[in-house]
Fold:
Amino acid sequence: MEKVRILPAGIPPHRNQPHCDPAHRFEMLRIACKGNPVLEPDPLEVEKDSPCYSVESLERIREDCGKKTPLCLMVGADAFLGLASWHRWQEIFRFAHVVVATRPGFHLASGICEPLAREFRERLASGPEELGASAFGRILPVEITLLDISSSRIRECFESGRSARYLLPDGVLDYIGKNGLYRNRNGC
Structure:
């Protein structure tokens, strides 16, 4: 069975430390994925005590799954447009395909700067079937239905005392309440 591994960031090198302790974030992910056999929470990055780089995580996952198994890194369009600023970003294509989630009507090619634009042109897949034909190296934009849910919006709900119901699974809401998380910006 194909799996979707979800790796919450441990110590992100490109932005401030997340508002909540990595152990809490991983437990919330585990609760959210419960009951879905396709989703697999992976503690690889939250267990690391140094900055986490996607290329290093992909390298480890590639070692686990072997050289021939197709592997995809799923990112949003905004993250993809900043890919050229990532640590060892060009090596990512040696370990995985990159699947880019885009909003309806968004034209990814128009917002890419060089040298990422060159990689995009050379690696663009014509469809999902190409990702199954090789283990890594292609880029596939995929249009998704946009939901107005973000971690920032959820934190704002908690900070202002508004309900986050329907933005998170009930089990995650219960966990947040029981552990007193997201009460203010100074900590969880």
Summary: The longest helix spans residues 22-33. The chain has eight helices and five strands. The radius of gyration is 18 Å. The mean pLDDT is 89.
